[in-house]
Amino acid sequence: MTTTRGLRNREKPITMLTAYDALTARLVDAAEIDLILVGDSMATTVLGYDDTLPVTLDEAVSHTAAVVRGTDDALVVADMPFLSVGVDDSETVRNAGRMLQEAGADAVKLESGPHTVEITDRLTQLGIPVMAHLGLTPQHVNQLGGYTRQGTTTEAAEEILSLARDHEEAGAFALVLEHVPANVAAEITDALEIPTIGIGAGPDCDGQVLVSSDVMGLTEDQPPFAEQFGDVAAAMSESIDSYREAVESGAFPADEHSHVEESVDDLTD
Ligand code: KIV
Ligand code: NA
Q: Where is the active site (predicted)?
């Protein structure tokens, strides 16, 4: 069983992958991945949206609950959707609370910034473990103008480091660093006690996270820092083609898939 405390000072790098359904969660969990993130990347991967903004809290709760049902050992982290955090403090607490109370997640992840330091402290005090997320925060795509690398000047990198310290101080149990220079991620990792989990942040973070559909080869557009480790799309297409051909040729269903009940009389007699 992975616990938030057990992530510190480990010998091997921490592994995290996204999942959005029980079926995938079962496979990820069986592969002994440490953490499963029910990312708001569900928007672009399984829900067909262009960016992550349209995902609702209800959708995220539903997918998180499905992942929890498929998971025995991994720590399940529910990503908080756009505007479910930060509009109002008590609403934020209730929204994050649903992820644990209703969906059964172990922790939540917030896209972090200066506005999430206090709420991270509050949630942590209430018993809701918080994973912070700095660097590229895709819910800000409309200000960023694209999914560009962050922390590319000394000043910008210092800002990320300072926010990382603030969130550690506020009680975050881990920090996702997305799309920042490897040397910046390495320095932030050194400066913190809590583990960093990188995505497009070089090899020196305490762990790595990727979107499972990128890893498995299910997504057409992958970010430059992703890596495809398999071709599940090809395997799916092949099985779907084979099914269609079998039905069209009459090969399916075969005798072993069918049952004739002799005791039923001819109905039209
Ligand atoms: O939503 C997501 O998949 C994420 C990871 C890329 C960290 O936030
Ligand atoms: Na996300």
A: 178 (proton acceptor)
pLDDT of residue 89: 96
Distance from residue 154's CA to the centre of ligand 2 (Å): 25
User: Under CATH, which number does the domain 5-231 receive?
Assistant: 3.20.20.60
Give the residue numbers marked as catalytic.
Answer: 178
Q: Outline where DSSP puts E strands in the chain.
A: 14-18, 35-38, 75-79, 107-109, 130-135, 174-178, 196-199, 207-210
Is 204 annotated as a binding-site member?
Answer: no
Nearest atom in ligand 1 to the alpha carbon of residue 111 is 8
pLDDT digits (tens, 9 = 90+) for 24-48: 999 999 999 999 999 999 999 999 9
Question: Could you give the C-alpha distances from 121 to 167, 168, 172, 188, in angstroms and in order?
Answer: 8, 9, 8, 20
Nearest ligand by distance to the CA of 20: 1
pLDDT band at 5 (very low <50, low <70, confident <90, very high): confident
Pocket test for ligand 1, best of 17, 20, 176, 216 (most atoms within 8 A of CB): 176
Q: DSSP string covering 67-78, please?
A: HHHT-SSSEEEE
Residue in this structure with the two tokens 């881990």, named with its chain if needed: 174
Tokens of 177: 């660093």
The answer on whether 12 is annotated among ligand-binding residues is no
Nearby residues of 214 by Cβ (< 8 Å), 6 or more positions away? 222, 223, 226, 227, 228
111 in a labelled binding site: yes
